[in-house]
Design a protein that fits this description.
This protein has two domains: 5-198, 3-Layer(aba) Sandwich (Rossmann fold), CATH 3.40.50.720; 214-413, NAD(P)-binding Rossmann-like Domain (Rossmann fold, 3-Layer(aba) Sandwich). Helix content is 42%, strand content 14%. The chain contains 16 helices and 15 strands. The chain has an eight-stranded mixed beta sheet, with helices on both faces. It has a five-stranded parallel beta sheet with strand order 13-12-11-14-15, with helices on both faces. Strands 5-6 form a two-stranded antiparallel sheet. The protein is elongated, with a radius of gyration of 24 Å. Bound molecules: ligand SAJ. Ligand SAJ binds at residues 120, 159-163, 215-216, 219, 223, 256-257, 259, 262-264, 266-267, 322-323.
């Protein structure tokens, strides 16, 4: 049976682009969202999140009458759940958003529908979702206990897109599709093949869940290695950037880049889902998280030591976003470092972030001032490079010559 109507539950960083891409392929898409403000914004053809080209695609889809946002679910042939999976307590995955999304759509499910979980989830979450749906709809059979006799198909297809390149990667990335039964996988594959030019790889739900977590943990462990190397290099008076450049000339070595810590809502979060599921086994994954979490504190200590030499330290933090060329300040180590420097009173603190126009309250209440790059370079005696935004890369190295610099991104060693 062909899919005509798709419902995307959760119109955030993943759900909205996904909904817009399906709509741009001619499907009728209904987005379900809890925020009334987001619903109104989208229905007016606008976007509430920043992502290159997303405004254009959403506007096109809404104006063509293919994309609509609503607060209450409506019947559809396929439901894609793209809601957050944050922590609760001690790094424990909080599945309550998935549970309420499931319970919310359950009332409109009909025989033959497909439900896909896209949210990054701990192993077993897709099966939990099937159970929650079954509790709400005892009149329908679900695959966790009815196998191939199920009325509704349930699968996991983790999102893998890189913020900043979402629209491109949504289409070009390969996808891992894990159903609770082979038929669930088959139906979900049919759905993704409508938009994906990459390959779709079939597996079961548990493998798909762990594959996503493993991808982000792989990055985290490798960044932890680079971050650890950077502190070893400081102690041994070796330039870590030159060291990595040289080691990477080996055909089987590819060390990642050290930085001020790992930010974002994915790489710094997902490894804990593995640690939580297998605490005795996940030793390296846990240690990597700890190493990356300690890096911002290490940078703050470096700044304290260096700024101390000035009678009146004026410290400029270059970059607040969690990585280069985006405006996303959430879970950003640069924000934590800037805040800690200001809170601990090392001196006057200036912040430069070309992608924002107003400083978050968290920093302004500590006396941090948002300034232009030229003002920062003129006034500061201590510079902390926290993000390798393009405008910083373009600066001539001479501008830093008379300054004391903590360069967490190796900008001056490129
Ligand atoms: N970082 C380093 N050194 C590096 C690479 C990254 O310090 O060599 C830092 C960044 O500065 C940033 C953090 O790591 O603070 C994460 O940045 P990122 O660009 O590596 O990844 P995210 O979090 O934006 O997106 C990741 C991606 N996962 C992988 O590359 C395996 C993306 O494909 C996922 O879809 C996304 O997580 C997600 O939603 O899970």
């Amino acid at each position: 049976m062909a899919f005509k109507t798709i419902s995307v539950v959760g119109l955030g960083y993943i759900g909205l682009p996904t909904a817009a891409v399906f709509a741009s392929r001619g499907l009728d898409v209904v987005g379900v969202e809890v925020s009334e403000k987001a619903v109104n914004t989208i229905n007016a053809g606008n976007v509430h999140i920043v992502e290159p080209d997303l405004d254009m695609v959403v506007r096109g889809a809404v104006h063509a009458g293919r994309l609509r946002a609503t607060l209450t679910p409506e019947p559809a042939d396929a439901f894609m759940i793209a809601v957050p999976t944050p922590f609760k307590g001690e790094n424990e995955p909080d599945l309550s958003y998935i549970e309420s999304a499931g319970k919310n759509i359950a009332s409109v499910l009909k025989k033959g529908d497909l439900v896909v979980l896209e949210s990054t989830s701990p192993v077993g979450a897709t099966e939990c979702l099937s159970r929650w749906l079954a509790e709400a709809r005892p009149d329908l059979n679900f695959p966790h206990n009815h196998g191939e006799e199920a009325d509704i198909q349930v699968a996991h297809c983790p999102e893998r897109v890189l913020p900043g390149k979402v629209l491109q990667e949504l289409v070009s990335n390969d996808r891992i599709i894990g159903g609770l039964t082979p038929y669930c996988t088959e139906r979900a594959t049919e759905l993704y093949e409508l938009i994906v030019t990459g390959e779709c790889f079939a597996t079961n739900a548990r493998t798909a869940e762990l594959a996503k977590l493993s991808e982000n943990s792989f990055r985290d462990v490798n960044i932890a290695f680079a971050n650890e190397l950077s502190t070893i290099c400081d102690q041994l008076d070796v330039n870590v950037w030159e060291l990595i450049r040289l080691t990477n000339r080996h055909p089987r070595v590819d060390v990642l880049s050290p930085g001020p810590g790992v930010g974002g809502h994915c790489i710094a979060v997902d490894p804990w889902f593995i640690v939580h599921s297998a605490p005795e086994r996940a030793k390296m994954i846990r240690l990597a998280r700890e190493i990356n979490n300690e890096k911002p504190l290490y940078v703050v200590d470096q700044v304290r030591e260096l700024a101390d030499q000035f009678k009146k330290p004026v410290i400029a933090c270059l970059g607040l976003a969690f990585k280069a060329n985006i405006d996303d300040l959430r879970e950003s180590p640069a924000m934590d470092i800037c805040e800690a420097i200001a809170k601990q009173g090392f001196g006057e603190v200036l912040a430069v972030e070309p992608n924002i126009s107003k400083l978050p309250e968290r920093l302004s209440r500590e006396g941090v001032v948002l300034v232009s790059i030229s003002e920062a370079l003129e006034r500061a005696n201590t510079i902390v490079i926290l993000v390798d935004h393009k405008p910083f890369i373009r600066l001539s190295k001479e501008k830093f010559a008379a300054k004391v610099v903590v360069d967490t991104r190796g900008l001056l060693s490129r």
